[in-house]
Amino acid sequence: MELERRNNVKVTGEGPATLIFSHGFGCDQSMWRYLAPDFAGRFRVVLYDLVGAGGSDLTAYSASRYNSLGGYADDLAQLIEQFAIGPVITVGHSVSAMIGALADRQSPGRIAGHVMIGPSPCYINSDDYVGGFTLEDVESLLDTLDRNYLGWSSTMAPAIMGAPGQPALGVELTNSFCRTEPEIAKQFARVTFLSDNRADLQGLNTPTLIIQSTDDMIAPVEVGDDRPPLPDIEVLFSGAPCGLVVTEQNGTIVRANLTFCTWIGMTENALLGRRFQSLLTMGGRIFHQTHWAPLMQMQGSVAEVKLDVLHHDRRIITMLLNGVRREHAGGCFHELALFTTTDRDMYERELLNARKVAEQLLAEKSEAENALREAQEKLRAAYLKAQQRATFAEQMVAIVSHDLKNPLTAIKMATQMLSRSERPPRETTLLGHIGQSTDRAERMISDL
Fold first, then answer.
1. Do 327 and 414 sit in the same domain of this protein?
2. Residues 43 and 170 grouped into a single domain
3. Which residues form a coiled coil (predicted)?
4. Last residue of one domain, picked from the residues 195, 224, 253
């Protein structure tokens, strides 16, 4: 309840995200009365007054706390924590745009987006920055405000509103200025116009929509376009990272940038009046005459034409050329952009070498595979032949075994029959030897 009373908080609407509207210098939340209701059907809408403005609790104002925009940013961060639901989008007018950015810095990630209306991170001009005022302008404005706040309000409010066709708006802003307690307004004006929040915006990645008026005496359009100025067009042309050449239709050079001149070792003055094709090798001149010059006439452009350009010392520099034929008030000209191909040629050579190595390896692989197949065929043939020989050997052994067993059986039977009758010792010994030999022969045949 303390924050609600301190900042005169009003909450309306329902939705998955919260819009917090924050007014600018000399105003209060009533400035949003025509706008905020349109969002209440889709968002939770939070309106509040900066401490010291509108219906805020003036007893909560502290000159030390609000001696910088940081005090107001602290208030906004507290309001977000207490009244916001879901993602938070701040809608800040004028100085409140920077208050929203500072609150974002205090609680990174809590604010999902900013809508900044007429913002200015710094109102004072510097060497490379347009803020809209000189330091002397701001000091004079603050001095006038200190001496006669009500008079200043009556004079400045209509001018700040910038709507001469709607004087009622100027009257409303004047009344709003005059309702603000003068001492608080004076300090807030000093804090606002002397603040410099440019560093606070550096690296702020929260999505931001900037809305500017084309006729804002407080925040000129240049403030929102805080980009470094581009170099002079001549500097861009001269120092471009490619060669730039402009010729007449017959090839006469009328402009050449420093990059191209450096590449071929000649000055622009030495090139002016020369035909571009005179800088090419004989093959390049023929190609120019038969191919890309006719293409320029027929289709108005050429792309990625590879040319050999002669350096001043007669060595060859390979370049890629893109060109267009363009009509100007002074006539028709060919605008050429050229790029050296040293790195590209090196890359292409490396690719070709790699391709050759790959092809060689592939050939060696194919040769090895062919040799492997031949060896496998030879092994398969040798295996079949060995199998045939083994089969034949088995058959021969079977035949031999059968043919040997029959006479051995007869010999063994005869020996056994003769051994049954009485024989002289010598014959008995011989028959024993015969029996042993037949037994040994049978065992040998069985082992085959």
1. no
2. yes
3. 344-385
4. 224
